[in-house]
Amino acid sequence: MKGIVFTEFLDLVEDKFGLEVLDKILTQSDLESGGVYTSVGTYSFSEMLQLLQHLSAHTSISIDDLLLVYAEHFFGVIEESYPGLLATYKDPIEMLSSIENHIHVEVRKIYPDAELPTFEVVEKTQDSLVMIYKSSRAMHHFGLGLMNKTFEHFNSTATIALEKLNTDGTEVKFVINKN
Ligand code: HEM
Q: Which range is the signal sequence, renumbered to this chain (predicted)?
């Protein structure tokens, strides 16, 4: 997992919950990296999972809700870092249906070791999209947060339903309807 995902996460935790909570979850976790992250490094996903688990236990906020809020913050990082990539799109449905064949393809060129999910488009109309998310990381709520913000970016909103296709959440169907 890319360092920027960690550094932005730690910044957000400090911002929302304070330095004491950040310190506490870093100390509680058994981190290969020693809890020192640079935005250009690469770290194991199990470190992110431990940080999320400890933060969730401490705050009584579910991991899914933490990932949702974090993704909404992360979209701002994307807007700042990759304005050109976003400018390719005029419409949220077009953008979301292009994650697999364009957006994450470009991400992979920048970060060859990125751990990315797959999004298979099952159905697409002008105002709706059905996609299947697959990833061993089960970060579907990170996807949901990015989707919400994608609509907001285009001054639009959508109703997004998420259906887990297996219990561990590594396969999830997203049904997206533009409002
Ligand atoms: C992960 C970039 C748009 C869904 C990531 C990661 C990066 C990235 C750098 C982390 C990879 C790693 O840590 O190894 C981008 C950029 C985008 C974009 C630059 C737009 C220009 C989107 C959108 C979605 C999405 C619109 C909406 C569903 C995800 C998910 C992950 C992810 C769910 C977590 C990894 C996983 O589930 O396996 N993306 N992304 N991305 N991205 Fe994107």
A: none
pLDDT tens for 1-32 read: 999 999 999 999 999 999 999 999 999 999 99
Q: Kindly report the pTM of this predicted structure.
A: 0.96
3-class SS letters over the chain: CEHHHHHHHHHHHHHHHCHHHHHHHHHHCCCCCCCCCCCCCECCHHHHHHHHHHHHHHHCCCHHHHHHHHHHHHHHHHHHHCHHHHHCCCCHHHHHCCHHHHHHHHHHHHCCCCCCCEEEEEEECCCEEEEEEECCCCCHHHHHHHHHHHHHHCCCCEEEEEEECCCCCCEEEEEEEEC
C-alpha of residue 100 to centroid of ligand 1, in Å: 10
* Separation between Cα atoms, residue 45 and residue 55, nearest integer Å: 15
Is the C-beta atom of 132 inside 6 A of ligand 1? no
Judge contact between 172 and 151, C-beta under 8 A: no
Ligand 1 pocket, mutate which of 104, 111, 139, 171 (most atoms under 8 A from CB):
104
| Interface ipTM | 0.94
